[in-house]
Amino acid sequence: MADPRGFLNIEQQKHTPRPVYQRIKDYNEIYQPLPEESIRAQASRCMDCGVPFCHTGCPLGNLIPDWNDLVHRNRWEEALKELHSTNNFPEFTGKTCPAPCEASCVLEITSPAVTIKNIELAIVDKGWEMGWIVPTPPEKISGKKVAVIGSGPAGLAAAQQLCRAGHAVTVYEKDDMYGGLLIYGIPDFKMGKFYIERRINQMEAEGVKFINNADVGKTISADEILSSFDAILMATGSSIARELEIQGRNMAGIELAMPFLTQQNRRCLDKPVTEKEILATGKNVIIIGGGDTAADCLGTCHRQGAKSIMQIDYNPRPPENYNSETPWPLWPKILRLSPAHEEGGRRDWQIKSSKFVGDSKGHVKELHAVRVNQYYDETGERQFEEIRGTDLVFPCDLALIAIGFTGADKGLPAMFDVEIDSRGNIGTGRKNYRTSKPNIFAAGDARRGQSLVVWAIAEGREAAREIDEFLMGKSSQLKARDTSLLQIGLPGMTK
Questions:
Q1: 209 and 257 in one domain?
Q2: Residues 358 and 268 in one domain
Q3: Same-domain pairing of 341 and 413
Q4: Same domain for 356 and 276
Q5: Strand 240-241, strand 231-234: pairing
Q6: Domain of 436, in residue numbers
Q7: Which helix H or strand E contains 312, and what residues bound it?
Q8: Angle formed at CA 177 by CA 176 and CA 182, multiple of 5 degrees
């Protein structure tokens, strides 16, 4: 185990962000890593619990106490092996995951949790620095062929696992670059794109074939895919944005969040923006929504030089430290501030958008809204009621709608005659990832709905096991997620 008194003697220390005045001038990553010795000290805070509840918080079932102990003992290469045994891309989760594992840390009951995410990132960074991460081509070739549609985290994880199992894997990506949401959805200041590029290079060296600008159904037919492969995995994400259906929505200057973020990611990659440009520069910006995408818009608006920024949320302001509705080890519903909130702008809760008002040229100039109260009806369903006399008017030159996604694109499942479930996602069995067609599978946000990168990787790995068993007619040798421990339902993170 790690230092048996480490959690008593050593205070929590996290990666520190660059100063606000500095970081809002560029799109470079916000956080600065800790020195190696500091990371080892943080790893020593792990208590090696009899029942490590951090496992219940991690969708991947990461062996957290094991690699914490190895880092503490300066056995970094062994720690990397343990980390990679459950997570193909620890740098993706180390950069983007909200760390539900830390919320489930036993130490969190009385003290600040072990900084699991920072340690995870330090391990994989050390692995790349030392040259320990190398291509791992399959030892045997099965003769089976698998098509993976979508190169987001679910598709990439599945493709790597299937390739290592000996199958010939081809990944089809409709965009010009691989990575899905990781490339064009997540800003550079959260995760640099070179992290994705080097993993793609690794996978190509292992034998995975990548084809970009491959929009299945347009540039390549569904029939061609069906006739060429023994199994197909749909990992296309949850791409249908939830709309804000209020008066004036169709005015100029009212945009969905994802095209706004995609355009800026393309600029950072020195790629052309072919659509009408969406820029916050010099504008009064209203961001509608309270999640990670809204925070990404906020940080991007700061860097584009917005005149003012207001973020509004329909929901009540969460408590800052403890919520009795979500006690440990559940994922706590508390107020979370991203680095973007530290950079400026206003934020307000319990606001319902009523209508947009425009100028004589049809461009938005105001958002009208009203405050609401939350209550629960007799069935226990959450409801909202408007508060009379609380009318609000916000100046608005650019509105960004970031209120989530409603499901997968229906076009692709229709082409393959695959059923859609009641939530608008690709329908599968709860555990086997199989669609209504025996050789077609689904994983990630396309199957479970909008979720986390860590869940997408977990889904991709589990789907790969199911596909391997389908192809080979026997139990898969690919490592399964550990479900032996108590599984706790985490909002937005359960099956």
A1: no
A2: yes
A3: no
A4: yes
A5: unpaired
A6: 145-239+406-472
A7: strand 308-313
A8: 135
Cβ atoms of 405 and 450 within 8 Å: the answer is: yes
pLDDT tens digits, one per residue of 323-364: 888 999 888 999 989 999 999 999 999 999 999 999 999 999
Strand 346-349, strand 351-358: pairing: unpaired
Residues in the chain predicted with pLDDT less than 70, given as ranges, are 1-3, 483-495
Whether residues 247 and 347 fall in one domain: yes
| Rounded Cα distance, 72 and 180, in Å | 35
Q: If we measure between CA atoms, which residue out of 371, 181, 394 comes closest to residue 293? A: 181
Q: 41 with 173, same domain?
A: no
Model-level pTM? 0.95
Please give the Cα distance from 132 to 126 (Å, whole number): 8
pLDDT, position 484: 58
| Same-domain check for residues 322 and 367 | yes
Return the DSSP state at 32. E
- For the chain, the domain total comes to 3
Closest CA to 148 of 173, 111, 113, 183: 173
Name the nearest CA neighbour of 186 among 77, 285, 261: 261
CA 154 – CA 184 distance, rounded (Å): 16
Q: Look-up: residue for tokens 């320990």? A: 132
- Give domain status of residue 463, yes or no: yes
Reply yes or no: is the peptide bond before residue 259 cis, omega within 30 of 0: no
Cα torsion for 456, 259, 428, 465, to the nearest 10°? -30
Query: In 3-state terms, what secondary structure has residue 366?
Result: strand
- In a domain, residue 156? The reply is yes
